[in-house]
Design a protein that fits this description.
6 helices; two-stranded antiparallel sheet; mainly alpha
Length: about 160
Amino acid sequence: MADWNAEIGHAVPYDVWHGRRLRSTVPPLTARAANALLARLLPLAERIEAGYSTDWDGNNHVGNLNTDAQAAADEVDRICEEAREYGDNADTMSGMDAGEWWHGAEPTVTAETTDEDLDEMAEDAEDAALADNLVLEGARQYLYDARAAIAKAQE
């Protein structure tokens, strides 16, 4: 499973704390790079699953790994650490604020530009940004705010 960590600070979810879920951190990867990484990790995940058990410790069900499963888990961590340290810009995604994206090349927006046109412009910009491994943040709101500012200036 790939997911993002919603915990604030150094909090650890219950199932991770008790060893019932293992987690490793990777940079935000492109779909191609994420699929390649997951394919590389699959045999290790199968070894982890084969050597995993849960036991009651008197208070909680805790996860345990046998020697081979622990070795595979350590290898997963090593590979993910390597991905974080040596991630190629072609393999990683980053975010960019819409204002930065359009800075110096403002979109053509008027007070009469329709919501549908703004939505299409935002979608086109998001698609163009994705081609450069960027997630464009706040594109629609930026365009709606630009239209509102132009309308207010015309009053």
